[in-house]
Amino acid sequence: MSSELIEFFNVIFRYIHVIAAIMWIGNSLLFTWMEINFVKDPKKGDDSLGEMNMLHAGGVYFLEKRVIDPNNIPPKLHVFKWQSYTTWISGFILLIAIFYSRPGTLMLDPSKSDMLGWQATAISLASLVLAWFTYDLLLKTPLRKNTVAVMATAALILLGYVLWIDQFFSNRFVYLQVGAMLGTIMSANVRFVIIPNQKKIMDNLKAGRPHDLEIGRQAKLRSLTNHYVTFPVIFLMLSAHFPSLYGDPYYIAIAGVVVVALIIIKWMMNLYNTFSEWLYVAFAALILGCSAVFGLKYVSANASGGGGPALAMDDPIRLGKELYQSSGCMACHQPMDSSIAPTLHGIYGTERQLASGETAVADDAYLEESILYSKAKVTKGYAAAMPGYETVFDEEEVAHLIAYIRSL
Length: 408
Ligand code: HEC
Known about the structure:
Layout: H1 3-37, E1 48-56, E2 59-66, H2 82-100, H3 103-106, H4 117-138, H5 147-165, H6 171-206, H7 213-238, H8 243-246, H9 251-270, H10 278-305, H11 316-326, E3 351-353, E4 359-361, H12 364-372, H13 395-407
Antiparallel strand pairs: 1-2, 3-4
Helix pairs in contact: 1-2, 2-6, 4-6, 6-7, 7-9, 9-10, 11-13
Heme C (HEC) binds at residues 324, 327-329, 331-333, 341-342, 344, 347, 352, 362, 367, 370-371, 374, 378-379, 382-386, 389, 401.
């Protein structure tokens, strides 16, 4: 696929994907919120399960949750499904247009394995299908009766899978692949269980058949999965913007911490009516989660930097490293190329391809110009997104930075 076509698909379908996902997740969060805020009116009979009044945009909306009377089924019942399907379909198109069309550069990490592009695509695609069947099967085993056991088993299987794909996929694609698998499970839950079960319930009602409890229970377990997986999936989908997280050697542990913290936060948000300490626990999860991530990053930074001989206090490389870390270069430049910025590891003395079509050798003068006037020469394949540091660093500091970059 030509790069213009890839860019075209990227813009159109990413936009659709984001809008559809906002609509889907927005609905789902609003319904959960309603569910925990309904108040039952004791004056009304057993058919009324709860009601509420909402003030929104200049009007009061009255909403009542009820058991449907089979003799009085409303002529228009709104069903929510296209938000979910559109999210999945546009996401799948993006996966093909952006990743499957360039598996060698965007999915694989050549420093991990020499797997071929088509093999990576096949593994990614097959995993989407198998993730759904594995999850679906798991929820059909007797284990489903114990929510904690079923979730723990699913988490263990997922961890095993992640450790496997970590052998060949780039870190960034590992995050995205897991996000795509969880998103597929969520959408398939809607398509193959939640919507068909709603239809079965309505058909039973119309035919005067008794309510089948198992149908409702299955739909509920599926909704529960979708509900708690939502926040983690959003994190994984946006993770391409966080090279400092996926570029870290402990990126799997970091994702684990983030996912657990997000699930606890969502859980607490659901308890806000019934558990008075919910906000404290949610904040504790946030603070502990952030501390754990910073802790992991601290350990990995020291583990990778501590191997060499001890450096003198005024060593230019050490000073350059400190400057590099404190000036935020690492937010964009990682030990390997990312979509945000090229890596600076091993670039000293190499020939650089520029966006202008020219080439330049990465010597001291080139590095100095790149740091001070970053827009003067832009590396091919990257946006001119680097800030210029001409007013930030003096000559000596630039020399230290260059010494550090040379040492990488
Ligand atoms: C906001 C993200 C960002 C930050 C922060 C950033 N850079 Fe960059 N950097 C880029 C991008 C994108 C490019 C490639 C485009 C270009 O050449 O301008 C780049 C290119 C470079 C290059 C040229 C690399 C090549 O491919 O030839 C050097 C050297 C460099 N940056 C050093 C630094 C240093 C040192 C810092 C910290 C003081 C820093 N950058 C901070 C995004 C960033």
